[in-house]
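Input structure tokens:
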């Protein structure tokens, strides 16, 4: 059986589960494409494209449910959008072994993070309370992290951004997940266009895969907005991420 017949359901499932946490799906896409033999640049670019579509469809649901804090999103969108092309440039410059080791480490950290629950009782609503100078600086640094990681690794960065928003900026966990999905739309597509300019993409595959990614993001966000957490499934995906991390580590050494 052609492996590409199996990859489309995997794309749907990844988008479905990870969209519930505001993560899009890039955590699975990029390492999966590397394992399947995609080149370093095309793997990251394809991941960013699919991640952006999943995040966009998820954001549509979150915005309808009034779960996105736009006052929080604006500075992070600006800084992540500026940092993503720098990350994309870095992808083309670093050695493949270093790239694989960095990706392996980040995915392992993401897997560990997915096992840990987030609870934050006191939340700040930024469209109501506005920004202080120190919080604006912190948010800008988080935005740079999102954009650079998205552009370099194609992972989106949401798995780290959600806890940073919760514990550093005191955003409610559900608002953090929904707002991160909205922010990741911009960082993903900015990074993607930077990679796409270099060429080498399989557009036929990308467009069909994009349908599955969008459908998964839509279904996952609907599930999350209806108060179903999917924690057991997320833990299963964390185990898969750990296996991918180990595989990429041994490919890189």
């Amino acid at each position: 059986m052609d492996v590409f017949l199996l990859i489309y359901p995997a794309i749907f499932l990844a988008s479905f589960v990870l969209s519930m946490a505001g993560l899009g799906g890039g955590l699975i896409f990029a390492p999966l494409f590397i394992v399947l033999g995609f080149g370093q640049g095309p793997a990251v670019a394809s991941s960013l494209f699919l991640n952006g579509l999943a995040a966009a469809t998820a954001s549509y649901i979150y915005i309808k449910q009034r779960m996105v804090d736009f006052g929080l999103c604006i500075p992070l969108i600006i800084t992540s959008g500026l940092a993503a092309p720098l990350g994309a440039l870095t992808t083309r410059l670093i050695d493949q072994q270093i790239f694989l080791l960095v990706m392996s480490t980040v995915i392992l950290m993401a897997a560990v993070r997915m096992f840990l629950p987030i609870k934050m009782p006191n939340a700040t609503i930024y469209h109501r309370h506005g920004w202080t100078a120190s919080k604006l600086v912190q948010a800008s640094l988080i935005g740079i992290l999102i954009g650079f990681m998205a552009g370099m690794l194609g992972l989106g960065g949401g798995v780290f951004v959600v806890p940073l928003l919760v514990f550093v900026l005191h955003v409610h966990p559900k608002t953090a997940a929904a707002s991160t999905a909205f922010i990741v739309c911009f960082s993903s597509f900015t990074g993607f266009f930077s990679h796409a300019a270099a060429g080498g993409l399989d557009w036929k595959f990308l467009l069909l895969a994009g349908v599955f990614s969008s459908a998964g993001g839509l279904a996952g966000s609907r599930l999350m907005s209806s108060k179903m957490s999917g924690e057991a499934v997320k833990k299963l995906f964390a185990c898969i991420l750990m296996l991918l991390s180990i595989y990429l580590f041994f490919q890189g050494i």
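DSSP finds eleven helices and no strands in the chain. The two ends are 31 Å apart (CA to CA).
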